[in-house]
Amino acid sequence: METKSIIRQKLVVFTGAGISKESGIPTFRDADGLWKKYDAKELASVAGFEEKPQAVLDFYNARRKNLLEVEPNHAHIVLAELEQMHDVTIITQNVDNLHERAGSSRVIHLHGELTKVTSSRNRLDPDNIQEYPLEKPILLGDKAADGSQLRPYIVWFGEYLGPEIQEAIHLIEYADIFVVIGTSLVVYPAAGLVDYVHPEIPKFIVDPGVMDGKLPHGFMHIRAGAVDGIDILVEELKKL
Question: What is the band of 190 on the pLDDT scale with cuts at 50, 70, 90?
Fold first, then answer.
């Protein structure tokens, strides 16, 4: 007897700093965020790297080391478990590896990855991008494949996003369900991704703040942090 295959809905989840904050990773733009303590232009720009390369490497080496001290939280784990019911893709603004460590099999990083390094001359050349152990600091004099100084594989201010942005747009355009967790939707161009969501599909945003006047059209607001809100989201998904 012929059996019918079950069509799995395409669930696309867009995550930001709020989900990783609940694992102990500092955010950038909160009242106590990193850019309140450090100068973004000095530590997250090509000009800053050229002027003070050691300071930039020290900053990112500390952030890389921090990843060894944190764990995926309940929200990361539940998103990975949703793959049992849906065709899930995570699109994230985060540069940590907590989604992968929680078990998510398809993660697109828009702003780079702390677990990787690349060339300071040809940042987006695939031949120069490589995994780099978190416990191993990036040092001045360490060379990429093209002979240039190694740098973190991070999108700095003023730099173009990589090819991941086009893949993300395509996936969002064809999503059956779209979810936003842990991002204020103020950092462009990534924040503009919501404009590509089909107007008739279910859309959710998990955010603890008041969103009067800021809630994108057609979105259901789950007013909670990522760890508490993920269980509410799952119950809503069961109703679809």
Answer: low
130-131: strand order across its sheet: 130-131, 112-119, 150-154
What would the mean pLDDT of 89-97 be, rounded to a whole number?
Answer: 97
Structure tokens at 73: 């939280």
Q: How far apart are the first and last CA of the chain?
A: 29
In the residue annotation, 111 being an active-site residue is answered as: yes
DSSP structure string for 114-168: EEEEEESS-TT-GGG-EE--TTS---TT-B-TTSSBEEEEE--BTPPP-THHHHH
Tell which wins on pLDDT, 31 or 19: 19
- CA–CA separation, 18 vs 209, rounded Å? 11
pLDDT score of 3 more than 50: no
Query: pTM value?
Result: 0.92
Which residue reads 């099999």 in tokens? 105
* Secondary structure of residue 93 in the 3-state scheme: coil
Instruction: Report whether 69 contacts 24 (CB < 8 A).
Output: yes
Exactly one of 76, 99, 111, 221 is catalytic; name it: 111
DSSP helix, strand, coil percent of the chain (3-state; round to 5): 35, 20, 45
Three-class HEC string of 26-55: CCCCCCCCHHHHCCHHHHCEHHHHHHCHHH
More confident residue, 188 or 197: 197
